[in-house]
Amino acid sequence: MNLIENEWIPVRRRSGKVARIAPWQLTDGFAEDPIIMVSAPRPDFNGALVQYLIGLLQTGFAPDDARAWRRRLREPPAPAELKEAFLTVASAFYLDEGEARFLQDLNLELEIRKLMPSEQQKRTCGVGDLLIEMPTGKTLEDNTDHFVKRGRVAAMCPACVAAGLLSLQTNAPAGGQGHRTGLRGGGPLTTLILADSLWATTWLNVLERGFFNATGNPARNAPGDRFPWLGQTRTSEDDRATTPDDAHPAQVFWGMPRRIRLTFSNGQANCDVCGAVGNWLVSQYLTKNFGVHYVGPWRHPLSPYFVGPEGARSAVHPRGGIGYRHWLGLVHGTEDPRGKREPAAVVERYLRIGSDDLRLWAFGYDMDNMKARCWYDASMPLPFCPEDIREAFAFRVKAIVQSAGLAASATRAQLKKALFKPGVDVPGNLLFIAGRYWQETESPFYTLLPRVRQVLREHGDAIAILEEWHKTLVKTAEGIFDDVSRTGAFDAADPKRIALAWRDLQKEMHGRKMRQTLGLPDGPSKTVRVGQRKER
User: Which of 245, 273, 288 marks a domain boundary?
Assistant: First the structure.
């Protein structure tokens, strides 16, 4: 199976029709019934497959300059043109034929054959272990796979195993001694510009050739420098590192931190992931630790980065969800004494040369070393902001987000004071309250963004909009306080304690710190007597 020539990527068209395409068919039927999005049976497969298509375009079809990029966005290439470009690298994309196989270690099978049978068995894994959330190692030894059970995926079809291999090599988490993480670390956050067709989505996330080549060493142009499975693996038993100087820039899309060799078998069976029936599937693979150890100033164009005070750069990882509290860092970047956050290179570039309001798609695994805690997947507005107001826009949005953070913290702190006696250890610290606060104010926040932009375009005053946002924060805080304090879910609630906490919440919500954060003039003092609460 060749992953360039064969039709294996599941997609959905605008009409709702689901089909499988070869990568070069990305623009097939674009005028009549365009392909909207990949449609794999798992969300992490979708994320991996879109990055695969972007990687192919970046590797074999990158534009020379911004003008060429804009032209292709308006006038997509015909499938035949894409096929001609992709076939130049098709020999690197065999999944099951020849010695060099896609994302699989060239010499691993030979190495393992030389081991004693007992050692060979240790290097053999069930194909379900390709799926990041599947229990492995100590979890199985201790029989603690309570929520995600072993053995549920015993066979995969070629399309699913290719997507699973992509997902694992892209997101590779820590997996014990010598099991290297991906080029961006284990479980990186990916942010893509999202449009109304799969062609536009992929092309919006392709950089001009010169801009892309800024990370990596274009002089390293041997086949194995682009596609590491075409050469001897740069194993890392002695902690040998692979830096941008050691590889072509394209390797950011084709990193191979895990040493894997798939084992194909004949015989009709069902794929345990998508349900397809096939004559040959994968039930096992060989693996060994100490694969490619990516170290150094890599910058993947699809991930935001955190830069520490001393300049060390690391890819951002999703922790505890993706919401509007992260929006500014993902789109415009932020900076404080702890360091700064840089948006993904593709987002920075689009805000510089784009023109339309689109959406940002953010996704990734929340990993605890080798354990997948959650898969996060969210989309949010990406309003285009002209350069002359971009700094002012970011300044206003930062104030809006910071004020919501103050309000969420105040609501949580005062509910804790209302419901528990001083000194009581509260399990979880009522973190769900802050999460609820962010969730309930998310829609108003996104509604606010184009209004702030419009005021700045017209050189107007944003005070009225900020006052309106302040009212939203107050109303949300009061609503959550009322709801949680009256649920009866907490024992021995003291009415006086609740009333005092309500008073203190009002002070914080209307106080000087809140208004200064928003850039609002001090308002009239607000006196709230103990017990004074709005009844619903």
Answer: 288
